[in-house]
Amino acid sequence: MKITLKIWRQKNKESKGGFKTYDHSHVSPDMSFLEMLDVLNTELIKKNEEPVHFDHDCREGICGMCSLYINGRPHGPLQTTACQLHMRSFKDGETITIEPWRANAFPVIKDLVVDRTSFERIQQAGGYVSVNTGGVPDANAIPISKKIADEAMDAAACIGCGACVAACKNASAMLFVSAKVSQFALLPQGKPERQERVEKMVAQMDAEGFGACTNTGACEAECPKGISITNIARMNREYFAASISSYEVQTKGGD
Amino acid sequence: MKLDSKIPEGPLAEKWTKHKFNLKLVNPANKRKYDVIVVGTGLAGASAAASLAELGYNVKAFCFQDSPRRAHSIAAQGGVNAAKNYQNDGDSVYRLFYDTIKGGDYRAREGNVYRLAEVSVNIIDQCVAQGVPFAREYGGLLANRSFGGAQVSRTFYARGQTGQQLLLGAYSALNRQIANGKVKMYTRSEMLDVVVVDGKARGIITRDLITGKVDSHSAHIVLLCTGGYSNVFFLSTSAKGCNATAIWRAHKKGAFFGNPCFTQIHPTCIPVSGDHQSKLTLMSESLRNDGRVWVPKKAMPGLKSKDAANIPEADRDYFLERKYPAFGNLVPRDVASRNAKQMCDEGRGVGSGLAVFLDFTDAIKRLGEDNIRAKYGNLFDMYAQITGENPYKGPMMIYPAVHYTMGGLWVDYNLQTTIPGLYALGECNFSDHGANRLGASALMQGLADGYFVIPYTVGDYLATIGWTDKIETDHPAFKEAMDGVNERVNKLLSIKGKKTVDEFHRELGLTMWEYCGMARNEAGLKKAKKIIQDLKAEFWTNVNVIGTSNELNQELEKAGRVADFIELGELMVDDALARSESCGGHFREESQTPEGEALRNDDLFAFASAWEYKGDGQPEVLNKEELKFENVKLTQRSYK
Prior knowledge:
The structure holds 2 protein chains of 2 kinds. Helices cover 37% and strands 12% of the residues of chain A. By secondary structure, chain A is α+β, with helices and mostly antiparallel strands. Chain A folds into 2 domains: 3-110, Beta-grasp domain (Ubiquitin-like (UB roll)), CATH 3.10.20; 117-252, Alpha-helical ferredoxin (Fumarate Reductase Iron-sulfur Protein, Chain B, domain 2). In chain A, helix 5 (174-186) packs antiparallel against helix 6 and helix 6 crosses helix 8. Chain B has helices at 15-22, 28-31, 43-55, 93-103, 110-130, 162-179, 245-252, 319-323, 333-345, 361-367, 369-387, 442-465, 476-494, 501-516, 522-542, 554-578, 602-605; strands at 35-39, 58-62, 80-81, 155-156, 183-186, 189-197, 200-208, 214-218, 221-224, 257-258, 263-269, 292-296, 316-317, 356-359, 396-405, 408-409, 422-424, 607-612, 621-626. In chain B, the strands form 5 sheets. In chain B, strands 5-2-1-9-17 form a 5-stranded parallel β-sheet. In chain B, strands 11-15-14-12-13 form a 5-stranded antiparallel β-sheet. A 4-stranded antiparallel β-sheet of chain B has the order 16-10-18-19.
C-alpha cells in the first residue's frame, strides 16, 4: 500500500504548529496504525529528520495512552483505539490526516502528544472510595446484584484516553467524569460519598476549562470502549440530588 | 557474599504472623518524619504508595507515563487468584501455596509463597471495598473461574479486564492520597539512577521527559515497582514503554539480580504477522477453559482457520488433552508453550507454520454463542480487530510469546534488595514464582507486596535507622550520580551513527528468542553471548539518536532503555548457561525426561541464583541462595 500522510508537527507547547506532508510507500494492510508510524519514523531517522512524536504504550487497546485524531475522528474510522486500528481499514493511495487531541484543557506538548493531567486532577478530586488498606469486610459480605455489578463494570471500563473530549464540539469531559461517578453511584461501596464526589469532580472539571455538554452524543459514538451517555444522565441526576441536599449534608451531616 | 533470606523460623503457617509481631514499628507521630520514594505506579507501586501514605509516611511517586493509570498492570486480562474457597471445591491457603510452589517447579521459597497465598484473601476484600466491579453470580456473590495449573476455581475476575479494574482501584487509592497531600506524584518522569551512600539507598536521579531536566530526590527508602523485563526480547506482550532501566541501574549499584533467565512464554498469543510487528498480543489464559488446542495429525502446511471445520475429528490431534488427560488444556503455561512449539517443530503448525488452533466450536455448541460472547466477548473482538478474522466462525490461531519475567532483583523476606533501604516489589523482584508463574498470580503478587507486605516490613528498617538518618540532595553523591546521568545522555546523542535504536533492539530480541527463548542449549547460549557483546560494542559506536536532551525526545528514552536491555540480555544468557538443568520455563535441551518434559536436577540446582555486578566488562559473580523445602516433597512435576 502507498499512502500520503498529513501530520501535525509542533516543536513544543509554546511554538506554533502546522501540517507536514509525507509520502509513505512501505505500508502493509496487516500493520497497525502505530506500526505504520513506526516505519515512517525509521525512515525519517535514516534521513536524519526528527521522528514524529506520539503517545502510545500497551498497544492492545487498554492503557488509554494513544491519542491520535485521524481523518477528523478520534482514534480514526473504527470505534476502537488507534493502536487497534489496522491499515486494512484504509484504501491504497489514500491521504490520511493525523492531528493531536484538540481541547483547551489538553495543551499540545509536542507533535501529536498532549497533556492530559487535567483528567488526573478530576480523578483526584473525588474518584475514589475513602477506604484505607486493611480492616475492610469480607468481600462476600457486600452482595451486589449481577445487573448492578455489570452496569458498574460498563462504566468502569473507561480507559481515560480523552477521545470523548476530542470528539465533542464543546470539548466537554462529561462522559469521562460521568463514567467514574456512575460506577460509584451504582455500587453500595460508593454510596456514603456519592454527593460530595459528584460535586467535587464536576467542580474540578469546570475549573480545568472543559466545555459544557449539549447532548450531541459525539462522545458515545467515538468512545473506543462504548461508554454510554446514560452515564451523563445519571451524573446529572446525582449532581442535582447533591445540589439540593448538600447544604443539609454540610451543616448537619444529613438527615 | 552470604545471602540472608531472613525467612522466619517456625512452622510455615505461623511464619508471617510471628514475623509481623517481631518487626519493629514506627510510632504514628513519627511516620511523617520519614520520606519514601516509589518508582513505578502499577499494581505494586500504586498500592504501596497509597498504603504507606495512609499510614502517614511522605511519599514521592514516579512514573514514565502521563498517568499512573497507564502502567502495564492495566493490560492483565484473566484474573487474580485468592484462596477464598467460596466455591467449596477444596481450596485452601495451603493448596494455593502448594500449586504455586509446584507450578514454579520448586524454585521459589516456601516462606514467601505461603505468605502470598495467606494474604491473597485480603486482596479480594480490599479491592471490593474500593469498588472494583468483580464478576458476580445472580445471587450477588462473587464469581470465580479456573486457571492453568490448578484444579479448583479460585480466580476472581472483572470480564477480561481484571488488571485494569484492580489497577484503577489502586490508582483511586493513590489519587486520594495525592489529594490529601501525602503523595507527591511525578508523571512523565523516568528514574535513571539510584543514589547509594555508605551502602544504603538514599535517593534517585530522574529525568523529566518533557523538559529533559535531570533532578535528584532523596528519601529514607526507595521502592522499585517497575515491572518486568520481557522487552529484552523486543517482541513481547509487554507495553512498548516497559523497561528494565530502574532495576538495571540498581543492579549496577549493588543490588543482586535473581534468576535472570527465568522467563515466561505464554502459550496463547496472536501469531506474528510480519517484519513490521512492534509487539505481541496475549489472548487470556481463561480462554483455555473453553477453547480446545489442536493441530492436524498429519502436516497440512498453510491450513487456514476457515478450512479447519473441514478436518474430521479423526484427523485432529488435541495434543494437550492427549498428553495430559488430568489437566488437559489447562496445563501450566510453560508446558502448553513447549508443546505448541514441538507441534510446529514437527511441521504440524497451521497458518504460517508457527501457530496452533484454539477452537471454540464445541463450547459454542454446548453453551451457545451468546454465552461465549458474554464470557470472552472483548477478547474475541480484540482477536478479530488484529487478525481481521472472525473467531466465532473458525478457530483462533495462537502461538507462544514472551509474557512475564519471574526473575528480577533478589530480595529477602522483607522485599529488601542487597542494598539496605532499597526494596523491589511486584514483577521487578524475583521472589514468588520460581521458574514458572501460574496464571492469575501476577496481580496477586503485585497487590500482596504493595498492600500487605511492604507496609509492615519497611517499618522495621525505618525504626532501626531512625528518622534523622537521611542524606539531602546537596550531598556530593547526588551530584556525582547526576553528572553520570547527564554524561550518558550526552554520549547517546553524540554518537550519530547509522542504525536506529529499534534496529538494535530487534537484533537483540531475535538473538534472545532464538537462543534464550523456549528452548536453550549450551552451544546456542555461547553463541548468543558473543552476538550480544558485539551488539553492545556496535550500539555505543553506531546508534543514531536524533534530537536534543532538553525536550521531549522519545528516541533518547528508547536508546537508554535498549542500552540497558543489551547488558541485561547478556546476564540472562549467563544465567541460562550456568543453570544446566531444566526447570519450569527454563528448558535446557540437554536436560529432559524421555517424554520431553523439563528435568530438574535438585542435587545441583535447588538454589536461586543471585548475580553480583563487578564493574563494566567484568564477569558477574554468581551467588547462590539455597532453597530449603521443609513442607513439600520435590517431585517430577506431572500434569498427566
